[in-house]
Amino acid sequence: MPAFERALALGVTTLEADLAMTRDGVLVVSHDAQLNPALTRDPDGRWLAAPGPPIWTLTAVELARYDVGRLDPASDYGRQWPQQAGQDGVRIPTFADLLALARRVGVRLNVEIKMTPDNAPPTADATRFAQAVVDAVRAAGLQQQVTIQGFDWRPLLEVRRLAPELATACLTIVSPRFDTLRPETDGASRWHAGLKLADHGGSLPRMVQAAGCSIWSPFWRNLDTAGMAEAQVLGLKVIPWTLNDPTDIARFIEMGADGVISDYPDRVRAVLQALGKPLPAPWKPQ
Question: Based on the number of CB atoms within 10 Å of its own CB, is 85 exposed (0-12), middle (13-18) or buried (19 or more)?
Fold first, then answer.
């Protein structure tokens, strides 16, 4: 939660967060489906020596015993983010905590249902996960303020079935280490809930549209002018991730991206100002 409050102070218009679920069905905010030793200390204050248990195997009470307020400076992750301002005594927040913050300050949320086709690490199944997210957003009355995204499109299709009023964003990437477009023997990528690129003329934007997503969020290195134009002609918003270099941020803003996902929102705002673009206003209820 301190990180979200810092982001708000920098003027973000949308908070991005990933979701996991505990064994007793509590949605929590965590990038990792299991406890990450680079940022997790046990109840005795010791860094985990290895990846911890999957969140899906812990109750909410058990999870709350762990401190995730700072990075282990000796870890590769800690060396990657030397500017992180750590705090002690910070716990993994619940999704309810984040929804309450969004309702109080009027910021949008972009939440990722964190799961993989091979269920490693294990999580709730797509149907249960999607239902829990939909129920939480509806209970908070934030349907117009929340977008649900994911690399695994199965829960996104479930969200669309359960709550057509909720916007969904299809995440994609093609890289040597992570490729969500690579097809299996049946011609479909295991990440795309059975949808086949060939059935949509080889067009990724058209397949995103077929999945019911109103937003396409590709890895920024995979996005070119033609792809953006095709998606926007189809009525999709295009929001690439994760842009951290000011030169790249400026290039995609000038290409006409509908938004920018960045680890450094202060850099995005500086680029907007340098380009003479208006700074985005906070989200306001319709």
Answer: exposed
Encode pLDDT of 55-85 as tens digits.
Answer: 999 999 999 999 999 999 999 999 999 888 9
Q: Which CATH superfamily is domain 2-33+93-274 in?
A: Phosphatidylinositol (PI) phosphodiesterase (3.20.20.190)
Cβ atoms of residues 262 and 268 within 8 Å: yes
How many CB atoms within 10 Å of residue 237? 17
- Judge contact between 110 and 15, C-beta under 8 A: yes
pLDDT at 283: 62
Q: Are 219 and 170 in contact (CB under 8 A)?
A: no
Tens digits of residue pLDDT in 154-206: 999 999 999 999 999 999 999 999 999 999 999 999 999 999 999 999 999 99
Number of other residues whose CB lies within 10 A of the CB of residue 219? 17
Q: Tell me the average pLDDT across 244-272.
A: 96
Strand ranges inside the chain, DSSP E: 14-21, 27-29, 108-113, 146-150, 167-172, 215-218, 237-238
Domain ranges of the chain: 2-33+93-274
Q: How many residues does the chain have?
A: 286
Q: Give the per-residue pLDDT at 286.
A: 47
> Residue 170: which residues within 8 A CB-CB, separation 6 or more?
149, 150, 153, 156, 208, 211, 213, 215, 216, 217
Return the amino acid letter for 72: D
Half-sphere exposure of 281 (CA within 13 A, CB side): 3
Q: What is the distance between the terminal CA atoms of the chain, rounded to a whole angstrom?
A: 26
